[in-house]
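Pipeline run #58 for the internal structure catalog. This entry was flagged by the ingest filter as a single-chain record with no existing model, so it goes straight to prediction. Upstream metadata was stripped on purpose; only the residue string is passed forward. Reviewer on rotation: M.T. Logging verbosity set to normal.
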Amino acid sequence: MKTWQLCAVLTIMALAVLGCARLDRLVARLAGQAEAAAAGDPARGEAIFRRGVAGAPPCAGCHLVEQGGAGFSLGPNLAGIAARAAERVAGMTAAQYLEESILQPGNHVVAGYHVSMFADYAAYLSRQDVADLIAYLLTL
């Protein structure tokens, strides 16, 4: 099979699985059309955390940010996440850990929780969105 044929088959398969709109967002992200951010904006990251963006659900729908951990949430309380993220996986920075946790939520599941996080953030969030969200989380 020639390269162009393989690309055509993979594109058709991706369209069948993801649908056009989600595939377009994923391709834009992977192709770098959403340019990588030099630095994230924590204020914008907090807005994404609390309200969501581009059709992706808000993080605050499942995560608390409460010192002392009072209250119910489906996901872990993120108060103090900057310090914990830096120590979770040897060889990973806090920012790397957070990025992987957002884009590939099944990779790092906190003990006592299940993989219930929205799994398609990679298809909905731009690189800038992710950088902004991480910048906010690093302030916690």
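catalog note: Residues 37 and 128 are 5 Å apart (CA to CA).
catalog note: Residues 30-37 have pLDDT under 50 and may be disordered.
status: ready for reviewer M.T.
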